[in-house]
């Protein structure tokens, strides 16, 4: 009997950029009673079903994008006599669908860190429950990951989580509903211990896989100050102080480490926070810009972002503090026009963005946008290959529409082509080479160019193109570049690296 943990993917690249953290967290939650779990990340290679035997437990984690592939694996694993358990955001939202389409014996809703051993024990006793409520566990219950199980040389970046949940409520995002709006921060010591473990193994690049690294904005503090009861203010100040404490501890780690996180652009209001990020070696951040106009921001309930020149100033503030921004933009918003594509790329360049991504507005389940879209009378009865459009993730990938909402002024094809053009322009050789000036040596500039091209191949062409030959060509390119790049990210292992402050704490204790 074995435990298998599977991250489904239709595309396998042989090497991957970021470690899917949940696999290694659940491996740690599995404990030692049943032996080490078998970890299969299909972004590296596809699962070999022959390795799954009757009586094994197969845990499959899905989000909307990989649900269909996850269901295929679930059905096949069940046919082989294994216990099939699904978890992840999509399973949390649609437990019934997972049972119907994925052959699940059980579904875990919410966080799996604590409940997972019970699920395994029930399966092995032949009595799994249909539904387990993992809930939203507190930060001090987040499991550390089993990094000792990582395959060597396959991932460029490791990933560590420091906070779950986001207080905002953007209309296209499900994070605030699934992970909650109350930030749940992990104890600083635990985060540092895990990072030290990763650096000992040779990882230099680590993604802080957080929903929002800046969970307390000045506006939140001002609002709490206006309340008669000071407890909320104290709570927010404690969260903020803990962020600074984490960054202070990160700054004590080896200088060759590079961290990357996700953050709202509000952080640019706070120079002390940006300075602390720079000292903490947080060299990059994904910032959800979404739209360059005030109307576009209203479309997505993101009024806390800025537009126009103020937006440029905010984004540049990151760069002034040594933090490279990957700006994320959405196309297909009702207020977009034919000029939006070029205007967005021009702003991205003016704002000194180091990387950018341009995504198509998609109604993802769990979001406000999805609820409004799926409730439309006009969609009732619309089917593709026998699947209702409102369950678009179940439609075979090559038949899936790239856009789901009719636009007031543009055809869907105009939006798709405009988006492709934005990627092409931002990642043209000339523009990428010019941007590569952010690093100094020729070797580093070449690495920068390769990474930019890799990013574009992995995320642009395979996501927007409708022609399958182009998708396959992009996947081949991405695979080739990824192999060429991966060594650039790894450092010499530091097996003797100590946890900063730990020896001092022990000496004091002794
Ligand atoms: S898009 Fe970002 S800021 Fe908005 S709710 Fe989601 S995680 Fe929070």
Helix share of residues? 40-55%
Total of helices: 19
Number of strands: 17
> How would you describe the shape?
globular
Largest sheet: 7 strands, parallel
Runs with pLDDT <50, length 5+?
none
Q: Quaternary arrangement of the chains shown?
A: single chain
Overall pLDDT, averaged? 92
State which percent range the strand residues make up. Answer: 15-25%
Computed CA radius of gyration, to the nearest angstrom? 23 Å
Lateral arrangement of strands in the main beta sheet: 2-8-11-12-13-14-15
How many angstroms separate the termini? 45 Å
Q: What's the layout of helices and strands?
A:
Elements lengths: L2 E5 L8 E3 L2 H10 L7 E4 L15 E5 L5 H13 L3 E5 L1 H5 L1 H8 L3 E5 L5 H9 L6 E5 L19 E6 L2 E2 L10 H4 L5 E2 L2 H14 L3 E4 L9 H8 L5 H21 L6 E6 L7 H9 L2 E9 L3 H6 L8 H13 L3 E8 L8 H11 L4 E6 L7 H7 L8 E2 L2 E2 L23 H15 L2 H7 L6 H23 L3 H22 L12 H8 L1
Parallel strand pairs: 1-3, 1-4, 2-8, 4-5, 5-6, 6-7, 8-11, 11-12, 12-13, 13-14, 14-15
Antiparallel strand pairs: 9-10, 16-17
This protein binds iron/sulfur cluster (SF4).
3D architecture notes:
This protein has 510 residues and is α/β, with parallel strands linked by helices. Helix content is 42%, strand content 15%. The chain has helices spanning 21-30, 67-79, 89-93, 95-102, 116-124, 175-178, 188-201, 218-225, 231-251, 271-279, 294-299, 308-320, 340-350, 368-374, 412-426, 429-435, 442-464, 468-489, 502-509, and strands spanning 3-7, 16-18, 38-41, 57-61, 83-87, 106-110, 131-135, 155-160, 163-164, 184-185, 205-208, 258-263, 282-290, 324-331, 355-360, 383-384, 387-388. The protein has a seven-stranded parallel β-sheet with strand order 2-8-11-12-13-14-15. It has a six-stranded parallel β-sheet with strand order 3-1-4-5-6-7, with helices on both faces. Strand 12, helix 10 and strand 13 form a beta-alpha-beta unit. The longest helix is centred in the C-terminal third of the chain and has 23 residues, at 442-464. It is globular. The two termini are 45 Å apart. The model has no long low-confidence stretch (mean pLDDT 92). The chain binds iron/sulfur cluster. Iron/sulfur cluster binds at residues 166, 168-170, 173, 175-176, 211-212, 264, 288.
């Amino acid at each position: 009997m074995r435990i298998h943990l599977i991250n489904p993917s239709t595309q396998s690249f042989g090497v991957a950029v970021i470690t899917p953290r949940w696999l290694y967290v659940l491996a740690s939650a599995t404990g030692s009673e049943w032996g080490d779990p078998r970890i299969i990340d299909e972004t590296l290679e596809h699962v070999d079903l022959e390795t799954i035997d009757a009586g094994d437990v197969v845990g499959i984690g899905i989000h909307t994008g990989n649900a269909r592939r996850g269901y295929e694996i679930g059905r096949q694993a069940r046919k082989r006599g294994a216990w099939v358990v699904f978890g992840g955001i999509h399973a949390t939202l649609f437990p019934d669908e997972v049972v119907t389409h994925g052959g699940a014996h059980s579904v875990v809703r919410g966080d799996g860190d604590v409940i997972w051993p019970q699920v395994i024990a029930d399966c092995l006793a032949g009595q799994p429950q249909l539904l387990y409520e993992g809930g939203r566990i507190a930060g001090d219950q987040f499991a550390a990951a089993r990094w000792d199980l990582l395959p060597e040389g396959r991932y460029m970046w490791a990933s560590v989580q420091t906070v779950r949940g986001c207080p905002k409520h953007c209309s296209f995002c499900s994070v605030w509903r699934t992970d909650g709006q109350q930030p749940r921060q992990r104890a600083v010591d635990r985060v540092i211990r895990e990072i030290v473990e990763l650096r000992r193994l040779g990882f230099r690049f680590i993604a802080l896989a957080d929903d929002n690294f800046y969970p307390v904005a000045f506006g939140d503090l001002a609002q709490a100050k206006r309340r008669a009861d000071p407890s909320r203010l104290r709570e927010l100040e404690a969260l903020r102080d803990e962020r600074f404490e984490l960054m202070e501890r990160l700054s004590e780690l080896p200088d060759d480490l590079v961290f990357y996180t996700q953050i709202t652009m509000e952080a640019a209001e706070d120079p002390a926070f940006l300075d602390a990020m720079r000292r903490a070696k947080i060299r990059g951040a994904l910032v959800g810009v979404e739209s360059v106009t005030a109307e576009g921001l209203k479309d997505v309930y993101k009024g806390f972002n800025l537009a126009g020149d103020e937006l440029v100033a905010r984004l540049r503030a990151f760069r002034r503090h040594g933090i490279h921004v990957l700006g994320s933009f959405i196309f297909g918003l009702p207020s977009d026009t034919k000029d939006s594509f070029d205007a967005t790329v021009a702003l991205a360049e003016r704002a000194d963005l180091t990387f950018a991504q341009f995504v198509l507005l998609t109604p993802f389940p769990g979001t406000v946008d999805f609820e409004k879209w799926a409730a439309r009378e006009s969609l009732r009865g619309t089917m593709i290959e026998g699947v209702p459009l409102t369950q678009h993730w179940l439609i075979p990938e090559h038949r899936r529409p790239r856009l789901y909402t009719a636009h007031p002024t543009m055809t869907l094809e105009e939006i798709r082509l405009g988006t492709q053009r934005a990627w092409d322009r931002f990642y043209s050789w000339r523009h990428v080479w010019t941007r590569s000036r952010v690093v100094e040596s020729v070797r580093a500039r070449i690495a920068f160019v390769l990474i930019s091209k890799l990013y574009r191949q992995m995320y642009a062409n395979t996501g927007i193109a409708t022609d399958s030959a182009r998708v396959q060509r992009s996947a081949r390119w991405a695979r080739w570049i990824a192999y060429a790049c991966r060594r650039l990210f790894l450092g010499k292992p530091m097996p003797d690296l100590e946890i900063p402050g730990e020896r001092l704490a022990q000496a004091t204790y002794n």
